[in-house]
Amino acid sequence: MKVEQIYTGCLAHAAYYIESKGEAAVFDPLREVQPYIDRAQIDNAEIKYVFETHFHADFVSGHLDLQKKTGATIVFGPNARPSYEALIATDGQVFHVGDYKVKVIHTPGHTMESTTYLLIDENDQMHGIITGDTLFIGDVGRPDLAQHVVSDLTEEKLASHLFDSLRNKIMPLPDHLIVYPNHGAGSACGKMMSKETTDTLGHQKEVNYALRADMTREEFIKELLTGLTAPPGYFPQNVLMNIQGYESLDDIMERGTQPLSAEAFEAAANETGALVMDTRDAEEFAKGFIPNSINIGLDGNFAQWVGEMIPDVKQPILMVIEPGREEEAVTRLSRVGYDNTLGFLKGGFDTWKASGKDVETTRRVTVEEVVEEFGKGQLPLVIDVRKKSEYDSEHLVDAVNIPLNEINRHLAEIPRDKPFLLHCAGGYRSMIASSILKQRGWDNFADITGGFDELKETPLPRTDYICPSTLL
Predict the structure, then answer these.
(1) What CA–CA distances, in Å, run from 194 to 145, 152, 162, 388, 411?
(2) Domain end: 237, 264, 285, which one?
(3) How many helices, marked H, and strands, marked E, lie in the chain?
(4) How far apart are CA 238 and CA 67, in angstroms?
(5) Which residues contact 185 (CB under 8 A, 6 or more apart)?
(6) Range of the structural domain that residue 329 is part of
(7) Phi, psi angle pair for 210, to nearest 5°
(8) Is 262 part of any domain?
(9) Is 447 within 8 Å of 423 (Cβ atoms)?
(10) 251 shares a domain with 219
């Protein structure tokens, strides 16, 4: 049986495509559906079903557009209550895709409608399981997301459901089955996912902490809930979009890719209160940018950081983009529900600069410049915007940790009356932080190019860095 995994690294997301005898099915598609349609055309196949494992939180699924464009039937598992036409399957129901079979296994826990799909080949042999966010490689789905939509679904209740789903529905299945999860390392839907994107169920039973055979329900709940960080604010909004429906991507692309002159761009920003998002490389942004714009570079985990830093998916957005990448930017925004893009600056930042309008810069320094400037004295305050787990592993002595996704809640802790340095791991996140601070009126700081990765390699005026684990 051939199962094609279509992996999108910036979201750590996996969709799946199967085809047999001219019939195809897609599982958990992304927002832009043309690649799936093109894939089916290569096989001269008709997309018969769009299977959804659950109402996703970290991205907006493409199931509605795929249904409209192909006539495919949308399938959810038990307990799903979408606001649009879909087939709500029963536990154990079997669907036919050519000579293949897809069997519904209801596995509540991550959410109450969460469903695993058992794939059965043309010889009636079980091949694998498409697990959605029920079972990852090395982890299982976090049980705290649904409570942000339905308040009485506590994380403890969902974790208990997940314990039963894993023990009673997943673990009894044969060891040879291939596990096809919805996400890999880097997704916020779990806490310790592997970089591997498939594995056998048997191996997962051996190495996945959540599948230990001797684990009690109480131990499972405690281990699953320990170490969970707050989910990004856009997650509940994406869930509602997936439940209630959304605007066609074709309309969003038409609106979002409108080219605007510098004058029209400025007028639109003033009239709509739109956020000006600059998606260029951090180094280019630092040299010059439109006042009050925010830098989130396309060449990084763009969609995830937009979701972390912009709380409302309905926020109007105007884009400053490297010419030629406009469709990419709008598409990647739409994947996480940011559909209100109003256009982009035609010709990019050069157009703004040539118009004679105000331009701002922000300071970046290399590690060598830090050593040269402060080599005879103490470093100023250093703010580390990496995740707490990164900071706990290694950090500069006396550095203050304010994770980027928490910076807006800790502005009062950042001095205005004395200089400071910012850094992340490599310079991507620290420039996001720099642009936010510039927007809020801070000016007496510098961002360290290369971040902690280069800081570790260079002798500094005081003890280089500390790895807390070595002090135990």
Answers:
(1) 21, 31, 20, 19, 34
(2) 237
(3) 16, 22
(4) 19
(5) 12, 193, 194, 195
(6) 247-354
(7) -80, -5
(8) yes
(9) yes
(10) no
- DSSP 3-state assignment of 260? strand
What's 80's domain CATH number?
3.60.15.10
Q: 104: closest CA among 126, 141, 135, 77?
A: 77
Q: Which amino acid is at 445?
A: F
Residues forming beta bridges with residue 181, ordered by sequence position = 132
Is 435 found in the same domain as 310?
Answer: no
pLDDT digits (tens, 9 = 90+) for 15-32: 999 999 999 999 999 999
Bridging pattern class, strands 445-448 and 420-423? parallel
Both tokens of 87, joined, read 């087939």
Query: What residue type is assigned to position 312 of the chain?
Result: D
DSSP strand pairing (46-51 vs 178-181): unpaired
The pTM for the full model equals 0.91
Say yes or no: 262 and 291 in one domain: yes
pLDDT, tens digit (0-9, with 9 covering 90-100), for 135-177: 999 999 999 877 656 667 899 999 999 999 999 999 999 999 9
Q: Where does a domain end: 301, 326, 354?
A: 354
For residues 359-387, average pLDDT: 87
Query: How are beta strands 115-120 and 100-106 bridged, if at all?
Result: antiparallel
For 428-469, what is each residue's pLDDT tens digit?
A: 999 999 999 999 999 999 999 999 988 888 766 554 445 443
Domains in the chain, number: 3
My answer on whether 425 and 451 are in the same domain is yes
Determine the Cα–Cα distance for residues 227 and 210; give it in Å rounded to an integer: 14
Contacts of 266 (CB under 8 A, 6+ apart): 357
Report the SS3 class of residue 35.
Answer: helix
3-state secondary structure of 321: coil
Q: Is residue 359 part of a domain?
A: no
Please indicate, yes or no, whether residues 55 and 127 belong to a single structural domain of this protein.
yes
Q: What is the mean pLDDT of the chain?
A: 93
Mapped onto helix, strand or coil, the DSSP state of residue 268 is: helix
Alpha helices in 280-417 (DSSP H): 282-287, 302-309, 326-335, 349-354, 367-374, 388-393
Does residue 163 belong to any structural domain of this protein?
yes
> Domain check: are 321 and 412 in the same one?
no
- Give the Å distances, CA to CA, from 308 to 121, 216, 227, 256: 41, 35, 19, 21
What single-letter amino acid sits at 138?
G
Question: At what angle are helices 326-335 and 302-309 packed, to 10 degrees?
Answer: 60
Cα angle vertex 158, ends 101, 74, to 5°? Answer: 35
Task: Please give the C-alpha separations between residue 47 and each of 71, 323, 395, in angstroms, as whole numbers.
Answer: 8, 35, 51
Phi and psi, residue 51, nearest 5°:
-90, 130
Same structural domain for residues 54 and 116? yes
Assess whether 232 and 263 both reside in one domain: no
Closest by CA to 265, choosing from 361, 359, 362, 349, is: 349
